[in-house]
Amino acid sequence: MSVKIARMKNQSHKGLLFRSENIKILMQEDLYPEKFSKSNMIESKSSFNLLFLLSPNINLAAEDCGTKFLFKKNQYILHYSPEESMAELWTENQELLKYFQIQINYNYISNLINPDSNKESADILESMIRNNYIFLHKQTPPDMTVEMHMILREIVNYSKKGVMQKLFVEAKIIKLLILIFEQFNEKNTVEETPKTPSMIKKFVDENYHKNIKVEEIGKLIGINQNKIRKEFKAQYHMTVSDYIAELRMLKAKKLIINKEIMIKEIAIECGYEYVQNFTRAFKKKFGVSPEKLRTE
């Protein structure tokens, strides 16, 4: 009996992760859904709300909209609410309800974008107000990118409080907005490349100098690592690991000509924790060690 009561008490977890004058961040997660899970999401007057749907088959019905939406896992929307409103989110058939909400004051966004500075800024703010960042292709919500997942994880795991947390959160929100604007700017281009491999390629292009692994990428975006490996190789005719190694070696070759940079520094810059591994990979790629290449 006591176990059951404890489980019911811990069934829903709705945590306020951060709050300031202009920003509020909430994390909702039903840990033990039974028949269905339900939650109410409040949108304040004159606020922009970033809603990331982190579990599958989430239904949403809003007071200011007569249509009911059904979201897939890892989709998101950016919604402007001129008046205070409430949206109801729920799942069925004992499915988990998990979402991440970032609420931002209108004046904060307006000051950030500064629509009076140029036409591009004015157009971005106008698009946000008109809720043009809800649907992407074929009236479907956009999918989260790997970077978006990483940013949410960083916000959740950040431990400092006070002004450091405020600056950290604001920087991450700016990065999220940049990613969203970039994603929607590309929506009119024809995507010949399948979504999964192109998304992984973009992530690797920007993070190959870090200690990244296919397993971690798969966990971040909710895609099986075997699927990532298979689709990436089918599209680019090489494995993800080989592609990472290729980018690292191209960068190493550019840096190695600068004799003022130590070999160890180049190894770290290219994503190698140990200089021995870097030297081995360099010699395998170019047939000569980095030290010998410098003397030639």
From TrEMBL:
Residue span(s) of domain HTH araC/xylS-type: 198-296
InterPro entries in the record: Homeodomain-like_sf, HTH_AraC, HTH_AraC-typ_CS, PchR_regulatory_protein, Tscrpt_reg_AraC-type_HTH
Superkingdom classification of source: Bacteria
Record keywords, A-Z: DNA-binding, Transcription, Transcription regulation
Official protein name in the record: AraC family transcriptional regulator
